[in-house]
């Protein structure tokens, strides 16, 4: 049997060879004679070596700042060329990382006291249901609390500072949007004449007027303020530059902190069933820490943390206030930066001030929940947001009803 098969294969071997040769010719000859047009395209990064090495060389998270810049898009998004925003000097992130964040354990009780005093100063008692524009109140509260940390309460509580910090923050956003409405080819010439740019410059002058005297008195140095202490290392040579940097810090700390806290309060007003459970948690945690907002106490307010993180999403169709309680790990915390939640950015360029900002937001929201119940004014659902391009903001004109919690 086997001999018959062998004979058959032997007899047909020339035919098999011809068939296989023909198939091979059809497959390989076109590749030899006709060059694939795609092969003519230049290969980016060929100097790095093979395909895998080229892939590794262009992983975004590993690219240095001179290849993939963080500062440039920030400057572009805020029209820094025209608004004169100082955004490239690393004094602010350095100061936050090296001075502020390590000091938060010591500072949190003091920050809590400042929050308490600012809320008492800015929001009426609301013994009965009272209309309150919470966004406007939060702007002033955040300005005072953030200013207390960076320049001290002597300045941060003055109306001159509060007005300059808040109005600079608002006018910078307005001026940025105004510049973007001008065609790029026309921006170099007319932007300095824009009313919005002129208004922004006036607030810079206002701020410089009172900061200049304060800086000349060496108040920062005497009190060990970090920015002045780091100024020489980062070539901040003039008082005007220091004033502009301080205004830039005010913008960074006031703008997003106020928006996030406003979002949280709008959400509590829209879903008041969450107020009492979160309030109970706050009371329980504070009782365990002698009534003090220590770092540990803030970390233990997990329902509050989850609620704020949920309300910061763009905006959820339905609110799952305890979404991030599931397996409450460090990855689920409000301050965490992950590929799924980038509220504070991601990777090495994540917001360096997020630890301070998160603590400040939690203290403000917690203290307001302990004082007042809140609800919308005759409307169902959450206050609508305002959309500008890919950005979403809580409507700053909306009012909520606040009423003092009965003891």
TrEMBL record:
CDD domains, alphabetized = CYP503A1-like
Could you say which cofactors this protein requires?
A: heme
Q: Which UniProt keywords apply?
A: Heme, Iron, Membrane, Metal-binding, Monooxygenase, Oxidoreductase, Transmembrane, Transmembrane helix
Checking Gene3D superfamilies in the record gives:
Cytochrome P450
Origin: domain of life:
Eukaryota
One Pfam entry name: p450
> Mind listing the GO molecular function terms for this protein?
heme binding; iron ion binding; monooxygenase activity; oxidoreductase activity, acting on paired donors, with incorporation or reduction of molecular oxygen
Recorded hits in InterPro entries, A to Z, give: Cyt_P450, Cyt_P450_CS, Cyt_P450_E_grp-IV, Cyt_P450_sf
Q: Transmembrane stretches, by residue range?
A: 12-34
State the family it belongs to: Belongs to the cytochrome P450 family.
What is the name of the protein in this document? Answer: Cytochrome P450
Q: What is the lineage of its organism?
A: Eukaryota, Fungi, Dikarya, Ascomycota, Pezizomycotina
């Amino acid at each position: 049997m086997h001999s018959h098969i062998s004979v058959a294969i032997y007899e047909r071997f020339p035919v098999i060879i011809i068939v296989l040769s023909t198939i091979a010719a059809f497959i390989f000859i076109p590749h030899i004679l006709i060059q694939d047009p795609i092969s003519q395209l230049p290969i980016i990064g060929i100097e790095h070596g093979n395909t895998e090495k080229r892939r590794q060389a262009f992983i975004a998270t590993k690219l240095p700042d001179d290849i993939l810049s963080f500062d440039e898009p920030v400057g572009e998004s805020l029209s820094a060329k025209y608004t004169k925003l100082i955004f490239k000097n690393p004094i602010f992130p350095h100061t936050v990382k090296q001075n502020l964040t390590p000091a938060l354990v010591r500072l949190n009780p003091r920050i809590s006291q400042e929050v308490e005093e600012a809320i008492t100063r800015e929001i009426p008692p609301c013994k009965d249901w009272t209309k309150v524009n919470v966004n406007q109140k939060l702007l002033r509260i955040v300005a005072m609390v953030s200013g207390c940390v960076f320049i001290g309460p002597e300045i941060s509580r003055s109306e001159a500072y509060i007005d300059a910090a808040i109005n600079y923050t608002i006018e910078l956003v307005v001026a940025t949007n105004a510049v973007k409405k001008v065609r790029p080819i026309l921006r170099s010439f007319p932007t300095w004449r824009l009313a919005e740019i002129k208004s922004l410059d006036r607030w810079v002058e206002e701020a410089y007027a009172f900061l200049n005297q304060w800086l000349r008195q060496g108040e920062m140095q005497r009190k060990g303020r970090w920015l002045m202490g780091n100024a020489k290392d980062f070539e901040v040579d003039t008082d005007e530059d220091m004033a502009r940097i301080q205004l830039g810090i005010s913008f960074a700390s006031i703008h997003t902190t106020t928006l996030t806290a406003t979002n949280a309060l709008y959400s509590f007003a829209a879903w008041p069933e969450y107020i009492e459970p979160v309030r109970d948690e706050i009371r329980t945690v504070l009782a365990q820490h002698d009534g003090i907002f220590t770092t540990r106490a803030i970390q233990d307010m997990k329902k509050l943390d989850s609620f704020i993180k949920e309300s910061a999403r763009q905006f959820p169709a339905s609110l799952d206030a305890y979404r991030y309680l599931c397996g409450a790990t460090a990855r689920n915390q409000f301050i965490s930066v992950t590929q799924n939640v980038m509220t504070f950015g991601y990777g090495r360029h994540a917001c360096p001030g997020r630890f301070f900002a998160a603590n400040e937001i939690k203290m403000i929201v917690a203290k307001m929940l302990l004082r007042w119940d809140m609800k919308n004014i005759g409307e169902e659902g959450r206050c609508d947001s305002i959309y500008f391009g890919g950005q979403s903001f809580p409507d700053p004109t909306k009012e909520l009803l606040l009423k003092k919690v009965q003891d």
